[in-house]
Amino acid sequence: MIEKKKRNIFQIIDDWASARSLWLLMYCTGCGAIELPPTMTSRYDMERFGIAPAGTPRQADILLITGYLSIKTLKRVIRAYEQMQSPKYVIGLGSCTINGGMYWDSYNTIKMLDLYLPVDIWIAGCMPRPESVIGGLNKLSDIIKAGEANGWKKYNENLKWYRANQKKVIKKWDLPEFNY
Amino acid sequence: MENNMELKALKNNFSKIFNVEYAMFNDSETLSIKIPSNETLNAIDYLYNKESYKHLSMMSYIDKPKDNIIELIYILYSYTDHTTIILIIDLNRENPKFVTLKNIFPQAETFEIEFNEMMGIVFEGNNRMGEEFILEGWDGPPPMRKDFDTLEFVNDNYMFRSGRENSINVREHIKNITGEKGALDD
After folding, report:
1. Is B82 left (phi over 0), alpha (psi -120 to 50) or beta?
2. ipTM, two decimals
């Protein structure tokens, strides 16, 4: 675990600035994807909080996992996550990412996302409504401002543990060992 | 509704030529026929060339562990008569084997790869057999078989989050935290 270190003035400004401009990469293979168009567009409009969708992993700050992940998609998510530039954050949306949700006895979906990727914020629900999504994003923004969203540091420091968990379920491992 | 006349005629002809186990109408436009597996290729050839069933709309299977069989199902459609024929074949469950239909219906090739992965049915003559279709690096038994115990597999391969330690009612708990009424409360 990472100890809470005292930040200097530049880090505080840095955190404040990055909390105000978050680019969101949505991994939309789960059913949570359907809640995101209203979140993005005029009805709920997440852009008023400084959050906008990003086109590619390399330009994104947040990886939003919208529901269940099968073994095959987990592999792509890990690849996408490692391509993102730090600081980077992961949001687990929906109960499937928390404890498997309705796929708890499926042979092909993972049950706990935080074994494989460092999750900064969980948004519970099946499915969470756009209000909850925006609530979670605001909460993440607060945590970043306070300098506590350190999932990506945790991932780098405990890479061995994460890799061991990932390799346990991904039987056909063909990802590079280090790609960030 | 009256059963389709052409389909009725086909049913009679078919019963004369082939050793039909049963043939029954599912509805007025759909006829299910069960035939032995060694006559299936001739039957499909007959339906394709002599009749107008040029379209394989679907392949499917049913696992029947009690009878020790897997039913392989071909659903054929005729664009001229607008009727459907469902061909049912029994395969041995221990060693399910059949011949590929990719030379007649090219789309059967993909179905056959999927069936091989999900049910373990081997289609002879399909040289893409054993290719990965949906699962990556799967080394367990075919997952769609009824004797495959998913829960046991999950317990062996995945970790579960432990449940809550207390037994507080969730709605009460939320009310205590926020002081607000939940959406589902009266």
Report:
1. left
2. 0.80
CA distance A101 to A30: 12
pLDDT at A2: 52
In a domain, A72, yes or no: yes
Contact flag B160-A71 (C-beta cutoff 8 Å): no
Please give the domain boundaries of chain B with CATH numbers for all domains: 5-139 (3.30.460.80)
Domain tally for chain A? Answer: 1
| Closest by Cβ to A172, choosing from B137, B153, B154 | B137
pLDDT in the model for residue B69: 93
DSSP string, B108-148: HHHHHHHHHHHH--EEET-TTTT--SS-SS--SS-TTSTT-
Say yes or no for a CB contact (<8 Å) between A111 and B158. Answer: yes
Could you tell me if B126 and B138 are in contact, meaning their C-beta atoms sit under 8 angstroms apart?
no
Q: Which residue of A has its CA nearest to B154?
A: A107
